[in-house]
Amino acid sequence: MTQAKTDHYTNSALKIGQVDNYPDRVAGEFISKVVSNDSVNGEYKLIVVEVHEAALRAYAGQMFHLLCPSPDSSEVWMRRPMSIYRINRDARQLEFLYKVEGRGTRGIATLNAGDEFNIAGPLGHGFTLDPQWKNIVVLGRGVGLATLAPLSQLAADNGVGVTAILSARSPDVVMSRDLFEACGAKVVTVVDTDNSSEVGNVEKILAGLIAEKKADAFFTCGSERLLKLMQRLGREHNVPGQVAMEQIMVCGIGACYVCMRTFEVNGEKVLKRVCRDGPVFNMQEAVAW
Amino acid sequence: MVDLSVRIGDLTLQNPVTPASGSFSWEYNDVIDLNRLGALVAKTICREFRWGNPTPRMAETEAGIIQSIGLPGKGIEYFMEHIVPEYARFKPPLVVSCSADNIEDFAALAEELSKSDDVAVVEANISCPTRNLTGQNFAMHEGYTRDCIQAMREKTKKPLWVKLSPNAGDMVSVAMAAEEAGADCLVIANTFLSLKIRTDNFRPALGNKFGGLVSPALKPIVLRMVYQVAKAVKIPIIGIGGVTCAEDVVEYMLAGASAVGIGYAAFRNPTALVTIIEDLEKWCDARGIKKVSELIGAVKDDDMELDTLVAASKGV
Ligand SMILES: Cc1cc2nc3c(=O)[nH]c(=O)nc-3n(C[C@H](O)[C@H](O)[C@H](O)COP(=O)(O)OP(=O)(O)OC[C@H]3O[C@@H](n4cnc5c(N)ncnc54)[C@H](O)[C@@H]3O)c2cc1C
Ligand SMILES: Cc1cc2nc3c(=O)[nH]c(=O)nc-3n(C[C@H](O)[C@H](O)[C@H](O)COP(=O)(O)O)c2cc1C
User: Rounded to the nearest whole angstrom, what is the distance from the C-alpha of residue B268 to the centroid of ligand 2?
Assistant: First the structure.
């Protein structure tokens, strides 16, 4: 089922080719057009949408808030936050890699090429690269790999070397490998099926990279366990880092204070909004669950 | 050209579409032009620093969302110094909602807010269902409401708006008490106290257990409340609850509201407020309505039996 064309809520959302009457917008509501929506493996799908160019201001680590069609007879009330997987400016396309889980993502999975899809964004603060960093280490697991993927593009554009450690349950659900490899990253995959994804082994790999001076900065997303590991090694070896965090969200703009998480800044506990203060945060300030 | 302006006491709004407190902030300027709104409404502020409630603060249900934010904020001093200037950059008048646990704090907030020329209206949120674990608040009782609003009235010359609770047993009496105590406008209504329990782990879905239900499904209930209160008071009313389109604004105005507040619709569609303003103008235009204010209380029910109305208002 597609969003009805008569959806009276969305008159002000920008369609492809429309004149932007509010060019000052930092973020917007866009009616995108689905180009494809195919399965990547048994659990994940990749949706490619064409958008108004104002939506292409997005950069790595930012997110969009997706208005999900309903997979059943009742409404999906809230939008779902998704990281930008890939920005293809030439084709005016955005890509989202998503795990089909609850009602919202099952709804997204029903979209077909040609359907309209209402997306709001780009939202939040994404990844930043310090010009002094020559080599970075990206460590992700599961859905987190979708969030980290555009870092490969960003790093390549800035001439920064990347080692990507991709963790997954089994080899067939390791994602983003191609994207990282295409950008010249060195890819290491670790999986549960042969125990290589255990924290002890990942720690060894990270320690090796630190010793080889291949770790000017750490980036992670998708696993509280791996976050704790990178935080500890980062502290011990003085490696700065960034982490993308998740939390249930409502407005996505910073107004409603639903998506709060605890952070520790200079020894003091503070609450921050994942949607606006993040979703990418200083790794050492994050408090893992 | 349709004249969309409405008057709330001495204050003129350029149109009747305002955001609802707590579901809006100046940050929405990222997505829409805030200068187009009828008013700007800040999130409820308290005197003290508040963390707010434990997460999760929102859960979806079959027919809407329940939320329990718990009025987080850095306190009134920080608000006056840092938040008010963020709103002052825009043209629409600023309504500042405030809340407290006791009458002294409510009065102190009214006094403090009145010191700023950038604050156009003081809104008393005596109806937040998630401020404490019990869901209790002043707007549940006419006596508490009267005492609280009287105390605030003594401390402020600014327009004083009072946000009522749909959880009160007898909203009309509470509304009349607020009017007697000096309220300039009634904001109807806050959210419905509710609960969701997860069947997978038997635990309440929200960190604070109880939350406020927000849903377009509640619109007919709140509309009925606006209608009943409008018959009983002389001061203007702002209708809030389930507005998602221009026709909903019209409906609230017909029932007696002078303006509306919008929360959920702007979550679903960040540009909703602007869409609704534009559609309202088109709606009036198409029907030859020159002034939107003509709609206020224009419901055609004079020919209906008085007995029926009395019975309806008593809930029989
Ligand atoms: C900044 C950010 C970026 C994200 N990027 C991606 C991505 O690129 N790919 C991907 O597959 N997933 C991503 N997620 C997680 C994704 O938002 C959730 O998987 C999704 O909301 C689940 O919705 P659902 O209806 O399928 O599941 P349900 O469990 O039915 O959802 C119920 C409610 O909980 C919320 N929720 C559930 N899981 C999460 C979660 N992990 N984070 C935040 N809210 C959640 C939902 O939004 C919804 O409001 C991201 C989350 C955040 C906060
Ligand atoms: C996330 C959220 C936060 C809210 N915070 C406040 C608040 O701080 N003060 C207040 O008076 N009402 C608050 N409300 C209630 C709204 O102002 C409004 O009364 C309610 O959402 C009903 O309107 P709607 O159906 O248009 O959403 C909040 C509602 C939501 C959803």
Answer: 14
